TrEMBL record:
PANTHER family: SUCCINATE--HYDROXYMETHYLGLUTARATE COA-TRANSFERASE. One of its GO terms (molecular function) is formyl-CoA transferase activity. It comes from Hydrogenophaga palleronii. Pfam families: CoA_transf_3. This is Formyl-CoA transferase. The lineage of its organism: Bacteria, Pseudomonadati, Pseudomonadota, Betaproteobacteria, Burkholderiales. Keywords: Transferase.
Amino acid sequence: MPSSSTPTPSTGPLQGLKVVEMGQLIAGPFAAKTLGDLGADVIKIEPPEGGDPLRQWRLIQDGTSVWWQVQSRNKRSVAIDLRQPEGQALARELVDQADILVENFRPGTLEGWGMDYATLSATNPGLILLRISGYGQTGPYRDKPGFGVIGEAMGGLRHLTGEPGRVPVRCGVSIGDTLASLHGVIGILAALNHRHATGQGQVIDVALHEAVFNVMESLLPEYSAFGAVREPAGSALPGIAPSNAYRCRDGQVLVAGNGDSIFRRLMTAIGRTDLAERPDLATNSGRVASVAEVDAAIEAWTQQRTVSEVLELLDEAKVPVGRIYTARDIAEDPHYRAREMILTQHTRDGHVVEVPGIVPKLSLTPGAVRQAAPHLGEDTEAVLRELGRSPAEVAALRARGLIR
């Protein structure tokens, strides 16, 4: 993979699309990263001093987060001071040539820079604008600050994560931001299809809590129909049985035996044909009523065996089962390698780091990592030259502190 700032030619399905990213941290940048993985030319606008704060998040190698190597691959970095009117004018020029603008600022920020959609679309009517915010662009909460963790709480997810009677826990990653990003990408692809038919762009408004709420399955209809408030259940999946984590001699496994025929195979494999043949356990509703008895029978069997033994025996019985993976497990798993879900990426500083592969996988126009994550402002001059700025004009902008 090349380590220069010039990307290799794109063959992805979004080849030819130009994206301007005006966001930071996770929600907006993850959406733009996904578009870049699929072939779009992504120009990321960063503040000249410090850049995107994600550059300094979590574990740092030679002054830069290794997370940055994933989040900002397939992007070009342009450092522009958007606090200054002339910097805002430069950004508008970039947006004027773009197909898509991605931003995740608090509502009103773009408008304060003179970049409301009416103004932008007046000169670029096909522009698609993705706006990700805590609470959306409208409504009584629109002006409140919101991060992914708050969206997870308001969306209903955080209440369910944890053990009954204990403080809820987070899932370990910024799932609220990522869900909002993926919903934003879905909106972009739908808007592109509409633009193909009409030539007209539009605004996509994604709120963090709404993206979380959208994946909460039966949470609301159960309350609406029965007044039932779903509560945390630890590792179990309430209303579906058996589906839980079970202790082994040297760890834990997850077993999903909730299909009717799968349940019979599971009970036979653990030597409980009596449960396999019980009429009241033949369907999910009966198993839910006796879930404590069923879970106890499974764990009595798993506790006598190692994780590897349980995996082997239940694989033979064609029962869905899996170990609980750590980062080491993922890195050493042959299936990840065979599916190209672990890629070797060369950073701009000469390091080699393994990163997640491309999702989704397309048969004819697969995505690719075409270039490494950029240094701050590394592509500023090249992008401004594409706008028609001369070397002297670029030097003057740099001298005035407008760009880096």
